[in-house]
Amino acid sequence: MISFGRAPCDEGIICAAADTPGCAERARPWVLAATILGASMAFIDGSVVTVALPAIQADLTMSVAGAQWVANAYMLMLGALILAGGSAGDRFGRRRVFAGSPSSRRPPSPADWRRTPLL
What is the C-alpha separation between 36 and 40, in angstroms, rounded? Predict the structure, then answer.
């Protein structure tokens, strides 16, 4: 039987990590809310194309194979952007990258829609 135990270097990395005090007591609910929001945006993002695929397929009059290409292209781009976001978080700091992401900004208001030209 194959054993999936810890790799030998995991314990050394955990023991060598510096103790961090964590966040302030009053900030903990906000940290939890931001974490839940970020995780739900990632999970919802994976199902957006699946829900919209019939409408995309009808609008572009494409076959099932074409619809699969659309779904695969979206998932490939999503995976690439997640990797790039993780790398940017490692380089510039996770808090700064998360605060600058589009998911942390306000949704568009009807006043914005008036100024947006229709295609």
Answer: 6
Is the model's pLDDT at 119 over the cut of 50?
no
- Cα angle at 108 between 92 and 31, to 5 degrees? 40
Q: Three-state SS for 89?
A: helix
Look up residue 32 and give its two tokens.
Answer: 């939890």
Report domain extents, the chain: 24-104
User: Hey, is 91 helix, strand or coil?
Assistant: helix
Q: Buried b / exposed e across 14-24, counting CB within 10 Å, b at 16+?
A: eeeeeeeeeee
Tens of pLDDT, residues 63-112: 999 988 988 888 888 888 888 888 888 888 877 877 776 655 555 555 55
The tokens describing 60, both together, are 């572009």
With the CA atoms of 3, 7, 12 and 13 taken in that order, what torsion angle do they form, in degrees rounded to the nearest 10? -130
